[in-house]
Structure formats: C-alpha cells, structure tokens
Design brief:
The structure holds two protein chains of two kinds. By secondary structure, chain A is an alpha/beta fold. Helix content of chain A is 43%, strand content 17%. Chain A has helices at residues 25-38, 57-68, 84-93, 114-124, 145-162, 178-186, 192-205, 229-245, and strands at 14-21, 43-50, 73-75, 99-102, 128-132, 139-141, 174-177, 210-214, 216-218. In chain A, the strands form two sheets. In chain A, strands 3-2-1-4-7-5-8 form a seven-stranded mixed beta sheet. A two-stranded parallel ribbon of chain A has the order 6-9. The relative contact order of chain B is 0.06. Chain B has helices at 2-27, 34-55, 60-87, 93-112. The chains are: A alpha/beta, B mainly alpha. The A-B interface holds A 25-26, 29-30, 33-34, 55-56, 59-60, 63-64, 66-67, 107, 110, 133-142, 145, 148-149, 152-153, 155-157, 160-163, 205, 207, 216-218, 242-246 and B 30, 33-35, 38, 78, 81-82, 85-86, 89-93, 95-96, 99, 102-103, 105-107, 109-110, 113-120. Chain B: Pathway: Protein modification; protein glycosylation.
C-alpha cells in the first residue's frame, strides 16, 4: 500500500511539461516560478514551445534558463504561429520524461494542481489524468452567465452524443503517459479546442484508462476573447466529426 | 387476465432482446465506430416499438405517438440537465484572489533574481 505521506514525486519518474506560448512574456515567468515552487521533490523539465512571439517571450525564457538551469527549462521555439496540436507534437520530440503534462501558459491552469495529477496517476496507474473544472472541488472564475450556459449546453450535448467518459471534454490541463500521448496525438487532426476533445475521445475509444482530478480555472482573458457564432459552429462540426469517426 | 400475460411477454422479450444487443455491442465496441453503437441502440428500440405495434396491447394510436413522446422527453431531459448544471456550476472566486497573491510573490522573486517582469 502506498504511504500517503511519501513525497509525491516518485524519483524514478521524470515529467516533461510542455507549454505552448504566444505573447506570454510575463505569464511564462510566473508559471515557471510556480512549477518550481510546487514540484520541489520531482524530477521534471519544462519545454516551452514559443511560436515566434513578438513581445520577447523567448528572451524571458532565456533569462529563466539562467536562473533555473538549461536542463530544467528547454526552449524549443518555432518560426511562427502554427497551432496547438503541432506545438505539442513539436515539444514531444524533445521530451525525455516518462510522463508528459500539457498546460496553458495564461495562468488559467495553476501549477499547484500538478502534485494532485501526479499522485492520481501513481495511485491508479492511469494512462491519462485530466483536469476537470465541472466538479464540486473544481470551478471556473471569470465567466458570465451566457458563457456558463454555452459551456453547460455544449457539455450536455457532447455527453449525450459521444459518451466520452470524462466530465470536462475541452479541458487542456492533462497528464499523459508519454507513449500514450504519442499514440493518441498521431491520430488526431482537428484544430483548437475540438483537438482537445478529439484527443480525449480517441483515447477513451482506444481503451486507455482515464482518471480525473478537480482543478480551478481562472479565466483572465475572457473579456478579450468572445465566444462567437463561428466558434459554436466549429464546435458542432467537431462534434459531428467525432461522432462519425471515433 | 390474458392481456396481462401478453404484456409481460412483450416486456420480457423486448428487454431480453435489448440486453442481448447491448452485450453484443459492448463485445465489439473496440472496433465499432461510436455512431454505429448509437444506431444499433436505435434499431433495438425501434424493434421493440414495432413489436409493441404488432402485439397491439396498447391502442395503436398511442403506440404511433411513442417516438414523439420519446424525442420530446429526451429534449426535456437535456434542457433539465443544462438547467441543473447551470445552477450548480462550480465557481471559485477565492482562486482569483489567491492567483493575485501568487503573481505578486512570483514577480518579487523573479525581479530579485534577474528576470524581467515587465509585461510590455
């Protein structure tokens, strides 16, 4: 039986944390600080995949490398904005961990939940541990009623049509076994948040064990990015695509 | 008396067939596309409905309306789930405050250690 008081980082395992960035010069520094703060006894590396940010994000990452070490922070940049899925694939090429964590750079995903992801995976030997915002201990801050309504409606629709086995389909705060991520990502073709849905649904169809941990999601960019009609159409198209091809 | 006996039989046959079909579906579920699973379920339900029509236990006029009742109740169920979910939507206002603390703490540490924390 695992001793609950044991340090949550099993020293045998290494965790690669892939963070795609675009214009996140301040947030990336804060995220790196918080990761180091919350994963003290864990062997990990952070892989920053920057898509040629004009605001100097890469310079900040280089400063962070000076502070924390180039073996802990890898900067694997790309020339221009090429999309999230390809960013993960790109980062995956350089990952040397046994596990891969994907998370957003805008501080909506808080690194303080990383220990609970790791713990859950060690307890259950799950192939994927995904963060869910829609359970009691989770939550979202920064959404108005309309946004919550869209989110809830989209969720009910997806649950009814796809039976995905997870409560938060579009979440992108996840821990994967490296081999599982490589397997799943190779068969995904969608873009944007439909891509996140496709990953988890395909993984579910392939029979991989998926566990969930509650996370809180603080949305500070909600005001600037609206959920318009075109996003809703994209979502519905994505649902139908997943219904027919998974 | 006969009416009750026959209703029993239809219910039993219908449930039995659905159970068989469901186990078949889960057995081949790895290779089956999800849409096929849903269609198989619809086929099973339709078979049950046709059996009901033919057995004529419930007056035919009611039986013809069953699919409509089904779709409408499905719609109502969906709306109910959305409403309940909306009411119970978990929020975390504390987290925004905690995040601000974390940001301040991080900025202090980083600027003291040579990392530029201006957000130009």
């Amino acid at each position: 039986m695992a001793d609950e008081k044991e340090n949550i980082g099993d020293k045998k395992y290494k965790y690669s944390i892939i963070i795609p960035t675009y214009n996140e010069r301040l947030n990336i520094a804060i995220i790196v600080y918080l990761i180091f703060k919350h994963l003290r006894d864990v062997d990990f590396e952070i892989i920053v995949v920057d898509d040629g940010s004009p605001d100097g994000t890469q310079d900040i990452v280089k400063q962070l490398q000076q502070l924390y070490g180039e073996d802990r922070i890898l900067l694997r940049a790309r020339a221009k904005k090429l999309g999230l899925g390809t960013a993960y694939i790109h980062g995956l090429k350089y990952a040397t961990g046994d596990f891969v964590v994907i998370m957003d750079a805008d501080l909506s995903h808080h690194p303080k939940y990383l220990p609970s992801f790791i713990k859950k995976q060690l307890e259950t030997d799950a192939s994927i541990v995904t963060g869910t915002r829609y359970v009691k201990d989770g939550g979202v801050h920064g959404w108005n009623l309309m946004r919550k309504l869209t989110s809830r409606g989209a969720n009910v629709l997806a649950q009814t049509l796809l039976w995905p086995g997870v409560s938060d389909l579009t979440g992108s705060f996840r821990l994967y076994k490296k081999l599982v991520l490589e397997d799943v990502i190779s068969s995904c073709v969608s873009k944007g948040y439909v891509f996140q849905m496709e990953m988890i649904v395909r993984a579910s169809r392939k029979g991989y064990q998926i566990e969930e941990v509650p996370i809180t999601f603080v949305d500070r960019v909600f005001g600037t990015s609206k959920l318009g009609g075109s996003e809703i159409v994209e979502y519905l198209k994505g649902l139908v695509y997943l219904l027919l091809t998974t | 008396m006969e009416l009750w006996k026959r209703f029993d039989l239809v219910m039993f046959t219908g449930t039995y067939n659905t159970a068989i079909l469901k186990s078949y579906i889960s057995f081949v579920s790895r290779t089956m596309k999800h849409v096929v699973k849903i269609l198989s379920l619809l086929v099973a339900v339709s078979a049950f409905w046709i059996a009901l029509l033919q057995a004529a236990i419930i007056p035919r006029s009611h039986t013809w309306l069953l699919p409509i009742y089904f779709v409408v109740s499905l719609g109502c169920y969906g709306l109910l789930m959305v409403g309940i979910g909306l009411m119970q939507f978990p929020t975390c206002p504390r987290e925004a405050v905690l995040l601000q603390h974390d940001i301040t703490e991080a900025k202090d540490f980083l600027s003291a250690n040579g990392v530029d924390v201006r957000s130009d």
